[in-house]
Design brief:
- It contains three helices and 46 strands.
- The chain is an all-beta fold.
- The chain has a 22-stranded antiparallel β-barrel. Strands 10, 11, 12, 13, 14, 15, 16 and 17 form an eight-stranded mixed β-sheet that branches. Strands 1, 2, 3, 6 and 9 form a five-stranded antiparallel β-sheet that branches.
- It starts with a strand and ends in a 19-residue tail after the last strand.
């Protein structure tokens, strides 16, 4: 249905000689009916005033003082109607101005007028969420599974966009803490934004990926709420606990959660290699005790109507301790038995604070600070039948401090166009150190970014961003300094038939982390070792994409073509040291991927929310270094995923099914063959929705689906590695919810640097 929206200004009286200034007033109507409670802004280069239309549809501004040659704008907005901009030339008397618009302008977005709205802009795609599609107490992860072109793996909270882009998850513009998705209720979610080509200005200069931003509803209620969750599995001594608590009163809000997970594993590893040394065979079985834990707290304080401050503290880590027993054999020699005791641990601690102040309507200034420590330990002790004990211990640490100034001015009018401006200045100081080496590295990064989003017309809008970075690396012998320019462009064109065409380009940087720079050798298994490289440079990635999007009511169809290229990729390469094959890191490789992806989201039989995504890409890796064992590897990869979810039995039980196949995957060293991954989930609530019960069947295809086979073949070098890990499990999840339901939104924008490999 076409909307007819008219804004009638009865008259604008400009009194040149009045010392009290100008008076502007008028009446707002729609289809000859007055509109009340409409927000009207009167704006120029020197003033910004607001009024609301009364029960007669009349608004009024008095005592408006303007300068010569100044231009006034009237900006009229009301939910459900297109924001309207009207220009009033200075000192021009205008009576009985009748302005009509045959149909509502679409503010450069595709708006489907239905219960669920899908909006596509140059920067992002936005999906309105209807909580009625989900069971009571459903969490954010279940909502993500219904968003077009998004695949969510509940077990490890990994999200994939467009079949190939790993996503970072944000909640109200704040990067989500570990396990935080499990504490966001579907009923509190207003919409979900998907950004497939994020700019460096708002989301940093990280190398690759997409952004999922979950926007929650606002409320002023004051209560305590929380949950206590517990999970137990039938296999692998799997169990976890997950308490969460939120408190909100007045200007103060606190959100905190903790999770401890125990998950043992049994890994089978078999390898056969044929090269100039002959045939080398190695086999073992590894039993691993593993646990993961994380604790996060965020506190928000509203200092005034315009100012807020937040504090964030987080800790996360994992430990894997295992014993492997097996044998290795070269040619026809006697097999050598061995026992390996190994430990791998990773920990991360973060402290952060953000101060924000609203300078004026739609313009906010941020001051941010963050401190973090990343630590990684890899220890292996071998007991050989004939060689005795051999000990390897690798430890790396990165201490990082960041400070940032950020200005965000959204929905401003300049030269008659609606624009948003973002500017950012960031400083990062990193110290890399190694427990078993005298090598260290100090890194300083200065990052300046600016972004301008412009609505050129009702059909065309763009997002243009440019980041300039200066990086300096130094130690006793190194004094390296280099500059980078990292542009981002997103443009969209809206056709008349609800079809959108989106063009994107970006250049991103990925830097080596502390463990990448550690050049000590650690033996993983007899005949196989890993090693870092202290001479690594950052890698730069160029990314292009062309996307067609068709929205029909709440359904969504998309077709995307993309190309990704890296000339100095940080990748593992092989080098030989006698019988030992060492996987070390180098910038020697180039990488290029060309592919397409098709996605559809709909509701089958008016009941089953269905999201399907699939596509192919062709990957080429090359190593031009002189000592390359493998110089080239290439091939096609199929990527596909499916999510199905529905409610049954008077909407008291929800059922979901998801699956993914991604392979064969290619790297410079190998072709990795994998099997499909499938899982199944049933949810319900009991005792007046206080207790949630979930039965989660993970990895239905079992041992073969959780493993992989790596094949390397080039010239006279051949290697096949088979790894299996039976992660199939049936999990029972119980969650007790207490306290009155309310939204615990905390406005903040923490610093989270993602420009290094983690």
């Amino acid at each position: 249905m076409n909307l007819k929206f008219s804004i009638v200004f009865f008259f604008v009286v400009i009194n040149c000689f009045s010392q009290n200034g100008v008076e502007v007033y008028g009446k707002i109507s729609y289809d000859d009916s007055v509109l009340i409670d409409v927000l009207v802004e009167l704006k120029s280069s020197t003033i910004s005033k607001f009024a609301v239309s009364d029960k007669r549809g009349v608004y009024r501004f008095s005592n408006i003082n303007t300068k010569d040659n100044d231009t006034l704008f009237l900006i009229v907005s009301k939910p459900g109607y297109k924001t309207y901009y009207h220009r009033i030339p200075h000192l021009r008397l205008e009576n009985n101005i009748y302005l009509e618009k045959e149909e509502a302008k679409e503010l450069n977005e595709v708006i489907i007028k239905s219960e669920k709205k899908i909006v596509n802009t140059a920067r992002k795609s936005t999906y309105k969420i209807n909580s009625k599609d989900f069971l009571k107490n459903a969490k954010a992860g279940e909502v993500l599974s219904t968003v077009p072109n998004v695949y969510f793996n509940r077990f490890d909270e990994k999200v994939i966009v467009d079949g190939v882009l790993n996503a970072r998850i944000f909640i109200d513009g704040i990067e989500a803490m570990s396990n935080e998705l499990e504490n966001i209720d579907a009923i509190d979610i207003e919409k979900i934004e998907v950004i497939s080509n994020p700019s460096s200005t708002l989301y940093g200069s990280e190398f690759f990926g997409a952004i999922i931003n979950i926007i929650t509803k606002k409320t002023t209620e004051e209560f305590i709420k929380g949950s206590l969750g517990a999970t137990v599995g039938t296999n692998n001594d799997y169990w976890s606990i997950n308490p969460a608590l939120t408190y909100k009163k007045g200007r103060f809000a606190l959100r905190s959660n903790f999770r401890f997970l125990n998950n043992d594993q049994i890994v089978d590893f078999n390898s056969v290699r044929n090269d100039e040394e002959g045939v080398f065979y190695q086999s073992n079985v590894k039993k691993t005790k593993s646990n993961q834990e994380n604790f996060n707290t965020r506190v928000g304080v509203k200092l005034s109507e315009k100012s807020n401050i937040t504090f964030t503290n987080g800790f996360s880590g994992y430990k894997f301790k295992g014993i492997a027993r097996g044998f290795s054999m070269l040619n026809d020699e006697n097999a050598e038995l061995f026992t390996k005791k190994g430990k791998e641990a990773n920990s991360q601690m973060n402290l952060g604070s953000v101060f924000s102040h609203s300078l004026k309507k739609n313009t906010t200034f941020f001051v941010k600070g963050a401190y973090s420590i990343y630590k990684k330990v890899d220890t292996n002790v071998f007991d050989y039948e004939y060689q005795g004990l051999k000990y390897y211990d690798i430890q790396s640490k990165n201490k990082e401090f960041s400070a940032e100034l950020d200005l965000e001015s959204e929905n401003i009018v300049f030269v008659g166009k609606n624009m948003s401006l973002y500017a950012d200045l960031k400083f990062i100081n990193r110290n890399y150190s190694f427990f078993d080496s005298t090598y260290y590295l100090n890194q300083k990064v200065v990052d300046a970014s600016v972004e301008l989003d412009t609505d050129w017309s009702s059909k065309i809008s763009t997002e243009i961003a440019l980041t300039f970075e200066n990086t300096s690396n130094g130690n006793v012998t190194l004094n390296q300094n280099y500059n980078l320019l990292l542009p981002t462009f997103n443009g969209i064109y809206h056709f008349e038939n609800k079809l959108d065409l989106k063009l994107s380009y970006s250049r991103k940087v990925l830097r080596p982390d502390a463990s990448d720079l550690n050049s000590n050798i650690v033996v993983i298994y007899p005949g196989l070792a890993k090693q870092g490289n202290e001479d690594l440079d950052p890698q730069l990635r160029d990314y292009y994409s062309l996307t067609f999007i068709k929205s029909i009511k709440s359904d969504n169809l998309s077709l995307k073509f993309y190309n990704e290229s890296i000339n100095n990729a940080i990748t593992e390469v092989y080098r030989k040291d006698g019988e030992l094959l060492i996987q070390t890191l180098d910038n020697a490789a180039s990488y290029n991927s060309l592919g397409f992806n098709a996605g559809v989201k709909t509701k089958l039989f008016k009941k089953v929310i269905t999201s399907i995504n699939s596509g192919f890409d062709y990957n080429v890796y090359r190593d031009n270094s002189e000592k390359a064992v493998i110089e080239k590897n290439s091939g096609y990869t199929f990527r596909g995923n499916i999510n199905l979810s529905a409610k049954f039995f008077k909407d008291n039980i929800s059922v979901s099914f998801s699956g993914r196949q991604d392979g064969p995957n290619y790297s410079l060293l190998s072709k990795r063959i994998t099997k499909p991954y499938l899982d199944f989930n049933i949810n319900t609530n009991v005792l007046k929705d206080k207790i949630g019960i979930s039965l989660y069947a993970r990895n239905l295809l079992g041992k073969s689906a959780s493993g992989f086979t790596d094949i390397s073949s080039y010239g006279n070098f051949y290697q096949k590695v088979e790894t299996t890990n039976n992660s199939r499990n049936l999990l029972l999840i119980l969650t007790y919810n207490f306290g009155k339901k309310f939204n615990d939104k905390i406005d903040s924008q923490d610093i989270n640097n993602n420009d290094v490999r983690r």
